[in-house]
C-alpha cells in the first residue's frame, strides 16, 4: 500500500520580518561539497551525469555560473545538484529511489550551502549566490518552495531531511506545487517501486533527474531568485534487466481543478529542453536504451 506525503503541510510564509532577518545571521548550513560529479556518481544512471552544452560535460561544470554539488548530509552523500548561482536556483537534482515504504515529510529547518559563497568578515552578510527565507517572504507571485528531490522519494528520514536545502528548491506556483506536480510525484514513486530494479533484479532502484527551466520572462523574487517557467522529471531504471524510462514536463503556472501531468518519452523531454535553451545532448547514459 502506498501512502506518501510529498507536500505534508502548507508553508508558513507570513512571519515577522525582524525574525526572518535574525534567522539569516544564524541560518543552518549543510556541509556539502562543490566538486565534480565523479565524487557522487552513484546518483546517475551507470555513473554518468547528463551532458548539457555550456553547462555540464563529463561531470564537470562548463561555466563558473553553474556549480556541481555533491549534497552531503550527516557524513554521507545523499544526492547531487547542478546549481545556477546567477539565477539562484538548481538546474537539476539527481537522486536514487531505492525502497518502497512510507516516508512522512519532516518539518526540517531549511539549510544553505556555505561553499557557494565568497567568505566575508561582515556579520550578517546575506547569501549572494543562493536563495533564503527572506526571498520567499511575503512574495507577490503566489509561489512557495518547491523541492526538486522531494522528501517523499527518499529512502529514510535522514535522506528526507537532506532535501531541505535551498540548493534543491525553486520558486513554484503554490497551486501547481500542491496540485498536479504533487500528484505526479506520488504516481511516479508507485511506478518506480513496481517496475524498477537493479541490474541483478534484486531490489528497487531507479535513477531520477528533476529540473527547472527558465523562460523568456525572467520574473524574480526580490530581484534575486528567478522563477522558472517549466519543470521536468525523468527516471531511468532496469525492468526485467532492460532499460526503462518515463518523463514528465509541465509549465510552472497557477492551476485550478484536477489537472494531470501526462507521461512523455525521454526523447520528447530532450526536445522540450532544447527548445527552451537547455542544450541537452544526453540525460542518461546511452539515452537509457
From TrEMBL:
Domain (DNA/RNA non-specific endonuclease/pyrophosphatase/phosphodiesterase): residue spans on this chain: 75-280
Domain ENPP1-3/EXOG-like endonuclease/phosphodiesterase, chain residue ranges per copy: 76-276
Superkingdom of the source species: Eukaryota
Database matches in InterPro entries: DNA/RNA_non-sp_Endonuclease_sf, Endo_G_ENPP1-like_dom, ENDOD1, ENPP1-3/EXOG-like_nuc-like, His-Me_finger_sf
Alphabetized UniProt keyword annotations: Endonuclease, Hydrolase, Nuclease, Signal
One Pfam family matching this protein: Endonuclease_NS
Signal sequence segment: 1-32
GO molecular function terms listed in the Swiss-Prot or TrEMBL record: endonuclease activity; hydrolase activity; metal ion binding; nucleic acid binding
UniProt keyword Nuclease present: yes
Name listed for the protein in its UniProt record: Endonuclease domain-containing 1 protein-like
Organism listed in the record: Triplophysa rosa
Organism classification: Eukaryota, Metazoa, Chordata, Craniata, Vertebrata
